[in-house]
Specification:
Distance between the termini: 44 Å
Number of strands: 12
Order of helices and strands: EEEHEEEEHEHEEEHHE
Oligomer: single chain
Structural class: alpha+beta
Shape: elongated
Largest sheet: 9 strands, mixed
């Protein structure tokens, strides 16, 4: 098994930092490696704590009386120099429960009110996003949304369009647009789930 020999913090930013690692592979060869992390200090990285504390939350929200639209955002991302479709999401504040973070983030990004459903932890617990380059992990919340779309609480650095997509539009987006991986997989669920039970893939879910 590989080993981490040394961790050096390269940046000191609020939301994302770079760390240089000196590592040893299973054959005893040493290599440099770089990791991006939401941790403010190397002692808080998951490789140091051994704990998978979620950094962010992703929101799967259905809209409308028939729950036949899914709430998406179309956001400009500097990493690709273009727009990409994603689920509403955001970082969890220190000490904040990720379910409450989901309610807050949906309101801030879309203006909509979120009503979560209770699910088995296997569907909501934090999973890692892009493990080859970062230790970031995100939890997920599921539920319904209501209200009117608003950009009043969006941050100045955010360039976001809120999209209420029905199944026809979801199919078009998957075929033609840039889509984040997690969003794409969940959109596929939305496409093929029974319209009478749109949360059917969340076995044992219930309203709270």
């Amino acid at each position: 098994m590989g080993k981490i020999l040394k961790v050096t913090q390269v940046t000191d930013n609020r939301f994302l930092n770079m760390y240089d690692l000196e590592v040893e592979d299973k054959f005893g060869n040493q290599h440099p490696y770089q990791v991006a992390s939401r941790a403010r200090h190397k002692e808080d990285m998951k490789l140091a704590t051994g704990k998978n504390k979620p950094d962010g939350v992703i929101i799967y929200a259905l809209y409308g009386e028939q729950k036949d639209h899914v709430v998406l955002i179309r956001q400009y991302r500097y990493s690709i120099g273009n727009y990409i479709y994603e689920f509403p999401a955001g970082l969890i504040d220190e000490g904040e429960d990720f379910h409450k973070a989901g309610v807050r983030e949906l309101r801030e990004e879309t203006g909509l009110t979120f009503h979560p459903v209770e699910v088995d932890p296997i569907y909501s617990k934090p999973y890692f996003t892009t493990i080859g380059m970062t230790d970031e992990s995100c939890a997920a919340v599921y539920g319904t949304a209501e209200g009117e779309i608003s950009k009043k609480e969006q941050e100045e650095t955010e360039e976001i369009e809120v999209v209420l997509a029905d199944r026809k539009e979801v199919l078009r987006i998957l075929r033609e647009e840039h889509v984040s991986l997690m969003c794409a997989y969940m959109m596929m669920h939305f496409l093929h789930e029974d319209p009478k039970d749109p949360f059917g893939f969340l076995e044992g879910y219930r309203s709270v």
